[in-house]
Write a structure and sequence with these properties.
This protein is mainly alpha-helical. The protein has one domain: Tetracycline Repressor, domain 2, CATH 1.10.357.10. Helix 2 crosses helix 5, helix 8 crosses helix 9 and helix 9 runs antiparallel to helix 10. The chain is elongated and about 55 Å long. The termini are far apart.
Length: 201
């Protein structure tokens, strides 16, 4: 991706918004959204500051756009699992598979960009914080609707409140993604999730 963004000699080419967004998303995801400066992005992507600001307006708008890109290209896979008409155990297995995929083969970092932005808090701009908050609500609602659907067809017991179960599963998935980022191998993370979800069997 980096090589495609670099400019050659002569007149600069028009900035490719989608390529830049992918580059910025991965940079934030890999190094942390508050650890990557506009200067870093411009230097590594081979684009000028005026071009970047002309396209995105501000660093806050760039960060918000990168998170939106992450939502569409990465988190959409999560929402797809929630929406599928399959058994709870099958969807839970697909969730585990998604959480333990070898992203390095796709040239993607480990961890979760949304979670990193949640943890960044007030170090992000207002627009990005609002985007983070909105996405957090969508994710939480996705988990809750998924649990409610499983309860309605008898796949999950009504013994525990929906908000407890959804928050529990979401927390374990987030932890698994962080374990990968910290360097734990796939087998370790799989065992972690199997232990965490044992009582669903």
């Amino acid at each position: 991706m980096d090589s495609r963004l670099k400019r050659g000699r002569g007149r600069p080419k028009k900035l490719n918004r989608n390529q830049v967004l992918d580059f910025v998303m991965i940079s934030y995801w890999n190094d942390g959204p508050t650890n990557v400066s506009i200067n870093d992005i411009c230097k590594k992507a081979g684009i000028s500051k005026p071009s970047l600001y002309n396209e995105f307006g501000s660093e806050d708008e760039l960060q918000a756009a990168a998170l939106h890109n992450y939502h569409e290209k990465i988190l959409s896979q999560l929402f797809k699992i929630f929406d599928e008409t399959i058994t709870f155990n099958h969807s839970l297995k697909k969730l585990i598979d998604l959480s333990t995929i070898d992203r390095s083969k796709e040239g993607l970092p480990y961890g979760c960009l949304h979670e990193q932005m949640c943890n960044a808090g007030n170090r992000l701009g207002l627009l990005t914080r609002l985007k983070v908050e909105d996405l957090s609500k969508k994710i939480a609602n996705g988990y809750q609707c998924w649990i409610e659907k499983a309860k309605s067809n008898g796949s999950v017991s009504n013994e525990y409140e929906t908000i407890f179960l959804s928050k529990y599963i979401q927390t374990q998935i987030t932890s698994a993604l962080q374990l990968q980022k910290e360097g734990f191998d796939k087998e370790f993370v799989l065992q972690y999730l199997k232990a965490a979800f044992y009582f669903f069997n």
